[in-house]
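Ticket #4471: complex job returned nothing on first submit. Input attached below:
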Amino acid sequence: MEPHLFSPARNPSDNVTKRELYRVAARLFKEKGYRATSMQDIANALGIQKASIYYYIRTKQDLLTAIARAAMEMLVAEGERIAAAPLPPEEKLRELLRSHVRLICSNLDLFTVSLREFTPVNAGDHWREVVALRDRYEALLRAILREGMEKGVLRRLDEKLVGFAFLGMVNWTIRWVDPAGEKSPEEIAAAWEDLFLHGVRAEGGGAAVPPNARNG
Amino acid sequence: MEPHLFSPARNPSDNVTKRELYRVAARLFKEKGYRATSMQDIANALGIQKASIYYYIRTKQDLLTAIARAAMEMLVAEGERIAAAPLPPEEKLRELLRSHVRLICSNLDLFTVSLREFTPVNAGDHWREVVALRDRYEALLRAILREGMEKGVLRRLDEKLVGFAFLGMVNWTIRWVDPAGEKSPEEIAAAWEDLFLHGVRAEGGGAAVPPNARNG
DNA sequence: GTTAGCCAACCCAACGGTAGGTAGAATTAT
DNA sequence: ATAATTCTACCTACCGTTGGGTTGGCTAAC
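Support reply: We reran it on our side without changes. The output follows.
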């Protein structure tokens, strides 16, 4: 596998059209959906003929898979860096949240397509390899949560449910964020760190239910 | 508009096939996606001819729209009931979370299709009317959050960001919940009430950052 | 004189939707 | 009571279009 097609710069006279192809495909898949985007649409956006696209790729599915894999690889790379860092679990969680939000916001097309369009039906044979990456990320997130709970710095809640809440909160960003909008990734992440780690309830307000009182 | 096609029982000898049609369509749209599901697929699942479907509906889009509207109407109906109830904002939030999770879990096909497949491109002209329902629900959620913040029972955080976190956490359920699985809607909601209202950080643990210390 | 990059023309399966029909139940007219 | 009509719930056969993908080249640069 060649180096990432979606990373910023490249070697001197690298293949420009191929990179443009993937970029345009991601944009159109995000705007219209994978199935509703035709190869003709992509060709038009590139200003070339449809047949020319097949000089660079074998099938339409390959485009989708490459996009989804790129997104998941970014997430896993950052995640594993953070998980391995010498930080207390609470800080790892903060960092993970920040990196996740930052990645989504600065690669919105990639992540939107990866999260919304990459389904077993659309992905065909490539489904499993990309899902393996997703699973690695989920495992890593849960490991951080578990570590925090064991060290007593995080409350003892269902690890999976907390993990899904994290992922839902963060991944849902693709549904409302506006790249040209007012909220920066840092603002978003900061508010959610606060919310996720402290909750919404006011510090002094209401009778706090003890963590385990519910299990009766 | 006739009474809900997706509500449980009906008049004596109501049209069975029509209700089956919508149910099957929702199931297939969820499993394969809207675009990847052909009218032939639906006909096969019903055991009738493709043309017969057009006795009940005008276009494929109408199926999608009806499904999406049904889901949003359930959400809004429950939401407005809760918003109007004589409860403190914190309890309203709890109730809203519970009702939202319960609705998703017991109408998984409807909500999955509504959240994943109902896009401007797929919905055509019907987009706006259904989005209006979604907006009503979001407005209602934010009003509860605002009320809580004004009364001092919820922390002063960005209302939109907290709302999106709520919606993301809850709506993401469609991505992982297993109707035959171990987690009941009540368990899920209970864990998230805890998480959303209290946060994950242990009560005694770590140096709590004062709510507004970050704004410098 | 090879090859990277691209193109015009075509293939054909599958799509949403339509035309027009029919068996039988239900309703109305005589 | 029965004959005529209408309606329900489907059917077979087809249409025009679009889809992903292929074939067989051309051309400019090295």
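The two ends of chain A are 53 Å apart (CA to CA). Closing as resolved unless it happens again.
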